[in-house]
Every structure is written in structure tokens, then in C-alpha cells.
Amino acid sequence: MRVDLHCHSRASDGGLTPAELCERALQRSLQMLAITDHDTVAGYRAARDHLRSREPAGALTLLAGVEYSCVWQNLGVHVVGLGIDIDCEASRAAQAALRAARLQRAELIGARLARLGMPDTCAGALALAGDGQVGRPHFARLLVQRGHVRSEEEAFDRYLGTGRPGDIKALWPQLEEVVARITAAGGVPVLAHPIKYRQTATRLRKLILAFQEAGGAALEVVVGRQSADESRFLAQLCRQYGLQASVGSDFHRPGPWCELGDIAALPADCEPVWRRWQEATTEGEQSCTAMRER
Ligand code: AMP
Ligand code: ZN
Ligand code: FE
Ligand code: FE
Predict the structure, then answer these.
(1) How far is the CA of 36 from the centre of ligand 3 (A)?
(2) CA torsion sign, 49 to 53 to 55 to 58?
(3) Ligand 3 mean position to 193 CA, how many Å?
(4) Ligand 1 close to Cβ of residue 187 (< 6 A)
(5) Which of the four, 85, 100, 184, 291, has the lowest number of CB atoms within 10 Å?
(6) What does DSSP say about strands 75-82 and 188-191: parallel, antiparallel, or unpaired?
(7) pLDDT at 101 over 70
(8) Is 152 in the pocket of ligand 1 (CB under 6 A)?
């Protein structure tokens, strides 16, 4: 089954509209897609509406998805929620809190950049984000536009990346809280891109244990362009902690990064997190329907 359960649209820091993402997924013969924008389901909602009105209907199962920001022991962590009820109280509360946190963080980032000689960036970043959730990539793009740096990469390296002045995690909820919100919304909590946190194996195990004890269900075993060794290592951690396996490109926009649906095979001994929805689809009527709508 061709599956991609992690990607971004313009509802957060992606470059394509939700409809464009769906069309790209169909073009690339994906059968199941989750749009997992940072802290919002607006991308999923728009994609669902696009697929509902599409003629002809495409053979694409769209899962409700989101990627929540949180902290665990002062480490910024992302938890993907799959198959959540997007309209329930838990989802609304989580997204309202995270939207407020993002706006407040944007002001703090703006203040810090101003002290470094780059004034008035908050309003500019908000303008670039439009209706979507504002994030560090919007600041990065603005710093390039204003000539403060030559590339977004440089913006992250100097000002926005881990440990830099614009890296502010204090406003995010705790890992346990976002996992509970996903569970309360009837969704499946997935620990996003475990390798990206650059932790020692010991500390990564501690994080995974905390995630599992909080109610976490799966790890992203194949994500982006990581090595086969890394995927095997994560598959082993799934076995060890009784977790299922997810896959995702973490696609943001066309370019040199990982393409939508460009996903290496899952190690054989993994239990795919999407099996529950796969069965629902094959038994269900048409595949071009959004799952888990209530
Ligand atoms: P935020 O959600 O605002 O904290 O921003 C996190 C997003 O910034 C990630 O999902 C990536 O899309 C992007 N990002 C993080 N680090 C880098 C980097 N070093 N270079 C480019 N983009 C990055
Ligand atoms: Zn992103
Ligand atoms: Fe992420
Ligand atoms: Fe992501």
C-alpha cells in the first residue's frame, strides 16, 4: 500500500495548498494520505472538502491529521495525531491553546531578533503565514527577503535553529498533554521523526518510554530521507516498547527535500499503524472519503 502519513500544507509552513497536496498524492499514486500541519487541522479540512467535490473521485483515503508541538524534559518534540475527531472538544482546546502559543512565541521571536538588529519581523512573519499557523520557517523566509541572511538554512543556523535565540519552546504544552488530547479525540498518537531530536540512544529510549506510558501508539519508523540503519533501529524500538510503525515524507514543498510519498519500505517486522484504516477502506464503500468523521 502506498502511504504517506506526514506532510504539510500552507495551513502551516508548507508550500502547497491542501488541494494541491491531494492532487500531487493522486498523481504519485498514493492510496492513503494524512495531512499533518503544525498544530492545526485546517489543512486536512480543506483537503477533505476538495476530495469530496472532486470529479472524478480519486482513489485516495485521507486521514484526519495534525502534528502537535510539545516539550519533554526541555526538548521540543512533535507528536502526530492520526484519525482524530477534528471537531471534538479535545481537538478544539489543543489547537486553540497552540495557536495562542504560536502567536505569543512569534512576538517573543520578533523581540529577540529586534535586539539582534532585525526590527519588526513579527508582523512580517504573520503576513507570510496568512491564515495558517505561524512558525519559524516564516521568520526564516522573511529574513532572506529582507537581506539579513542569504538562505533560510542560514537563518536557522544563526537565529532560529536549536539553541539559537529564536528557538523558544517554553510555551509548548507537555508531551503527556498532547498525547492525551489525541487519545481523547479518538486518534492515534505517533511520535514524529525520532531521529531528528538528535538524542543519545539512552535518552531516546527514555523519551519513547515516556511517550508510550502517556498512551502513545506508534513511532515514525520511516520518515524523510533517513538511512536504512536508522529505520531498522527504530523498528527495533517499536518491538521493544510494543509500538506500531508509521511512515511519512514530512514533505513541505517541491524542492531538494523529501518528495511526497517518497518513502522507503518499512522493515518487515513492523506492525503498520495504518492497517486499521486500510481494513476500514477495503470494507467501506468508496475510497475517496475522509476517515473518522463524526
Ligand atoms: P516551528 O514549528 O515554528 O517550531 O518550526 C519547525 C519547522 O521549521 C520544522 O517543521 C521545519 O519545517 C522547519 N525547520 C526546522 N529546522 C530547520 C532547519 N534547520 N532548516 C530549515 N527548516 C527547518
Ligand atoms: Zn514544518
Ligand atoms: Fe516535525
Ligand atoms: Fe512535520
Answers:
(1) 9
(2) positive
(3) 7
(4) no
(5) 100
(6) antiparallel
(7) yes
(8) yes
Specify the residue for cell string 509500538. 243
Asked if 7 and 249 count as a contact pair (C-beta separation under 8 A), the reply is: yes
Distance 136 CA to ligand 3 centre (A): 12
Atom of ligand 1 nearest to the CA of 76: 4
Q: What is the pLDDT of residues 51-83, one digit of tens each?
A: 999 998 889 999 999 999 999 999 999 999 999
Banded model confidence at residue 280, pLDDT cuts 50, 70, 90: low
Q: What is the tally of helices (H) and strands (E) in the chain?
A: 10, 8
Question: Is residue 136 lining ligand 1, measured as CB closer than 6 Å?
Answer: yes
What's the CA-to-centroid distance between 285 and ligand 4, angstroms? 31
Q: In this model, does residue 290 exceed pLDDT 60?
A: no
Encode pLDDT of 20-55 as tens digits: 999 999 999 999 999 999 999 999 999 999 999 999
Cα-atom radius of gyration of the chain, to the nearest Å? Answer: 18
Can you give the pLDDT at residue 281? 60
Task: Please name each of the domains of the chain with its CATH number.
Answer: 103-160 (1.10.150.650)
Residue 88 vs residues 146, 181, 187, 216: alpha-carbon distances, Å: 41, 10, 11, 19
Locate 45 and state its grid cell.
479540512
